[in-house]
Fold Arsenic-transporting ATPase.
Amino acid sequence: MFFGGKGGVGKTTIANATALKLSAHASTLVVSTDPAHNVGHLWNMQVGDTPTTVRPGVDVLELDPARATNEHLKQAGDTMRRMMPEHLHKEVNKHLNLAKHSPGTHEAALLERIAILLEEYGESYDHIIFDTAPSGHTARLMALPELMSAWTDGLLERRAKSEKFSELVRGMSPTGKDTTVTTAIDPVDRRNQELRSILLKRRHRFERLRAVLNDATACTFNIVLTAERLPVLETDEFHAELTANGVHVGALIVNRRSPADQGEFLASRRHYEDEALADLHRRLPDLPVVQIPLRAHDVGSPQALEDIATYL
Ligand SMILES: Nc1ncnc2c1ncn2[C@@H]1O[C@H](COP(=O)(O)OP(=O)(O)OP(=O)(O)O)[C@@H](O)[C@H]1O
Ligand SMILES: [Mg+2]
């Protein structure tokens, strides 16, 4: 289950309140993929890169983006160094250092980590909830498995071509008879096979993730928003993007609804919100809408989460 939406709308609050609600009859792992972590503060507990139990039935984990990127690049580096002759290893390292800061690397690393988490914990919990970073980012993340598979396919195709080429060259050698013997133990061939198996493993990982993301019975995406004109327009676009990537949107969660009976100021806001919600309904008539009232106090505590959970 994914929770996404604009910055500050209440994704973290609602993701954790949902886990609390589910804990009555199911176990849940809440994963924060937002680099600006605050799940630990929410539960008043030290939380890290492995699951921490914050309530019976609720475990939380904060993905460490720097660690995810380093691990991702280390793997890529190992693969590249194996591909390249020794004297180019320095170049490889230089390239990887640059990659660490280039756009896309962080997303790819995050996605690989999500895929690994599903492999590691998919069987141990009834639900895994992803509390994601603000929208644009997440929509790109959903498109990524396709890109990553295409990239791996491209590499595999190149390998196949160069292997074919080497075979051809060997076939042309005058000592053609010896070739078969050499091939069986040829370290180059062995290396090629190793690389192929690494790339294929990676491709399967992304394919499995894609299959989960596109299976409406296994995965839903909930969009969190406030009842205002611009967030409604953005939600409509976000929904279209997710749907285009084959991701099923389960519900729209409208947070911070103003009360109608607490003075003129809030009543006027409420009226304005009702109009925005009517527009939301016109745009996305088939989606269930859950509404959560604006609270007088901050809701960043376990007790406040219990209260929010009653609206879910
Ligand atoms: N219904 C509510 N009533 C009052 N305060 C709320 C409500 N929902 C959330 N908040 C408060 O709004 C702030 C932002 O909420 P939260 O951190 O859940 O948003 P977010 O979407 O995860 O933000 P970010 O995009 O930065 O990750 C928090 O201080 C939270 O306590
Ligand atoms: Mg958050």
Summary: The pocket of magnesium ion (ligand 2) is lined by residues 11-12, 34, 131 (CB under 6 Å).
